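[SOLVED] Predicted holo structure with adenosine-5'-triphosphate

Edit: marking solved, answer below. Original request kept for reference. I posted the sequence and ligand SMILES and asked for the 3D complex as structure tokens.
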Amino acid sequence: MVGRDAALRELREAWARVKRTGRPVPAVITGLPGTGKSTLAAAAAPPGAITGRARLHTSAPYDWLASAVTGHDLSGLDLPRDALRWLAQDPDMPRERYTPDALLRIAVDMVRALVDGKPRVLVVEDLHALDPASLNLIAELATADLPALLVVTSQPPDAAVSPLLTARTLARLSGAPGAVRHHLNALDTTQVHKILTHVYADSPLPSDLVDTVWRRTGGNPYRLTELIAVEGAAGPAGLAGNPSPDLTAREREVLGLLVEGMSNKQIARALGISVRTVTVHVSNVLRKTGAASRTEAALKAVRA
Ligand SMILES: Nc1ncnc2c1ncn2[C@@H]1O[C@H](COP(=O)(O)OP(=O)(O)OP(=O)(O)O)[C@@H](O)[C@H]1O
Ligand SMILES: [Mg+2]
């Protein structure tokens, strides 16, 4: 992971602290979409981590807990059966018979039972998308008597389902004693350069390519990854994008017809011009777009 060394180091230190003291440590990682929050959380989570996230299509109370306990055997837990089933969102769940406070206490006990006294990493993915009951539970866990590193990722509260409650929860977590707090920004040009050098180890990078790629992606790791996968699959030159802002209106028209797979003769007929003129337009399009063939010019146009 480029550019996240300090954050990762701090998370590892926090985990060591949890193991040493047996006390909970919240670690809050915020950032805009695609800045690498989940990647960082996964890198910090050792095997055996308990991870939960919102179920985006059927949001329900205690989504985080229900998703975190999926695959765990709850039958041995010494807690009220019906409340456990309700909290785990059992499809045949019994009608709720508990007050919100009682449920919250049972939910904390349920996490405590899962943790089972051994140091654990609990991962809360995308706090901003969680239901209010889950937010309350996460805030409780940050100060509960648990040997847990509570790694929480979130987009900024203004993108949240409940912005105010999300802001308050993030503040509570960040304000807990010893909390780790990181906001992931976009990568800078030096970091983008490092990634490109790593991906294209065998190809020289054109001198202005890093700036162009940074401009096209804003240094966002997700957009960078996508750009490399889609446009840079054949080599770094593809990352520069469509270098054809100076195509004339006629040349754009010809390019549009190339995309439709027309021959020069068909283009000539479509535009009411001679085949010879079409040939000139096509060679201009190839030169200006830097494409080696009409197929490549069409492909570049489609991607752009
Ligand atoms: N520091 C980094 N260096 C290189 N690639 C990265 C880095 N961080 C993230 N990526 C890549 O960027 C993509 C997006 O990362 P990730 O899913 O972790 O972002 P996110 O912040 O969790 O996004 P979202 O808000 O949508 O959940 C992934 O493909 C990941 O491999
Ligand atoms: Mg994520």
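OP edit: The pocket of adenosine-5'-triphosphate (ligand 1) is lined by residues 1-4, 31, 33-39, 126, 155, 195, 221-222, 225 (CB under 6 Å). Thanks to everyone who chimed in.
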